[in-house]
Design brief:
single chain; TATA-Binding Protein; Endonuclease III, domain 1; 5-stranded antiparallel sheet; two-stranded antiparallel sheet; 18 helices; 7 strands; DNA-binding
Length: 387
DNA sequence: CTACGACCTGT
DNA sequence: CAGGTCGTA
């Protein structure tokens, strides 16, 4: 039976490309709620499906290693002895290698120089600078639009651990099986037509999708019936707001989900998805005060917070946001502690600030009198009513 | 535009 | 209530 590849058993099964950890941290990037499809299958080894194939990724200081499993079972292919055929195969193999590297570069958007961006963000924002020293290498994946859209329809009123299970069952139920590695079978993400099938809603409800089952099936059907198979991909080539509004015509897609899809699969680096968590960050760490003391996140609040952060961080604000979002996840809190043991001074400063912020926040509702960077800037920035 | 309840399920 | 969205006031 085929097994998950591990680097320690030899580099001959692996390809590599130069990539510093300051540019990419697999552990943070693959487990911070962007994609729900990667699992740590061995220490520091991440296995998942990308472009219809199963990959395992791992990294050392300056190198990103990747292994692509061959779903065509060529691992056991026989030597034919025909040298010309062998040569042809090797040629084809090399072509594929180039293609695979290119796919990986595309998926991680390695053309975007993250270190440079971190420097710029840190110069503009002292709070980011503090976080940035620990949470390096958090970058945006460039996901396949269909997978991204339908995964994020599952995220409404939901938390990461449950979403992960749901997406897994979605692929199991409706996606094509690819490879089996050590007891686990990997499935491709379902096609639009598989998702649009009339039986899907009931099927997914049985799998615990709740009311989202209907959203998934109806969105797929609407895309197929009204927009066409190339529509989603095509949104990569239109401006952010246009793509955002187009996505919002789909059932189950509100402002937050639309922003996630824009940012994570449609090349809209300026999109800032605002959930309650990001709202907390805006209030706690940036003294963001909205005009009306909102109880929940309205569309207007989405826009205002988006404008505020774009104004602060610039055209890659969505990327910046994901670093801070990642740094706030419970599962990564240990990283802060380990780091701050080495730097006790920073630790004390941080804790002090945080408890201060927390205190004032709990009293804030009655007296929102804080001075803020935002209200002035955002009001001038928001000339139009729409984003 | 804002407010509010309903909606699935799990902790 | 949780990393929302929809329908209705």
């Amino acid at each position: 039976m085929a097994k998950h590849a591990v680097l320690s058993s030899g580099t001959h099964l692996w390809r590599s490309l130069a990539c510093a950890k300051s540019e990419l941290r697999l552990d943070l990037t693959l487990a911070c709620g962007q994609s729900f499809r990667w699992r740590e299958t061995a220490e520091g080894h991440w296995t998942g499906v990308m472009r219809g194939r199963v990959w395992t990724l791992t990294q050392t200081d300056d190198t990103l290693w990747y292994h692509v499993y061959d779903e065509r079972k060529c691992g056991t292919r026989k030597r034919t002895g025909d040298s010309s055929e062998q040569k042809l195969k090797e040629f084809v193999k090399e072509e594929e290698d180039g293609e695979e590297e290119e796919q990986l570069r595309d998926y991680f958007q390695l053309n975007v120089k993250l270190e440079t961006l971190y420097t710029e963000w840190g110069a503009a924002d002292p709070h980011f600078k503090k976080i940035a020293n620990i949470f390096t290498g958090v970058r945006l994946l460039r996901q396949e639009p269909t997978e991204c859209l339908f995964s994020f329809i599952c995220t409404s009123n939901n938390h990461i651990s449950r979403i992960t299970g749901m997406v897994e069952r979605l692929c199991q139920a409706l996606g094509a099986p690819l490879d089996q590695l050590d007891r686990t079978t990997y499935y491709d993400f379902p096609s639009l037509s598989a998702l649009a099938d009339g039986s899907v809603e009931t099927r997914l409800r049985d799998l615990g999708f709740g009311y989202r089952a209907q959203f998934l099936q109806q969105s797929a059907k609407k895309i197929l019936d009204s927009y066409g198979t190339q529509w989603l991909e095509g949104l990569r080539n239109v401006p952010y707001l246009e793509a955002h509004d187009a996505l919002r015509t789909l059932p189950g897609v509100g402002t937050k989900v639309a922003d996630c899809v824009c940012l994570m699969s449609l090349d809209k680096a300026e999109a800032v998805p605002v959930d309650t968590h990001v709202w907390q960050i805006a209030k706690r760490d940036y003294q963001f005060a909205s005009s009306g003391r909102q109880k929940s996140i309205t569309d207007k609040l989405h826009r205002d917070i988006g404008h505020f952060f774009r104004n602060l961080w610039g055209p890659y604000a969505g990327w910046t946001q994901s670093v801070l979002f990642c740094a706030d996840l419970k599962k990564f809190q240990q990283l802060k502690e380990t780091q701050s043991v080495e730097q006790p001074r920073n630790q004390e400063e941080r804790v002090e600030e945080e408890s201060d912020a927390a205190k004032s926040e709990s009293k804030e509702r009655s007296k929102p009198k804080k001075s803020n960077l935002c209200s002035e800037k955002t009001t001038t920035y928001v000339k139009k009513r729409r984003m």
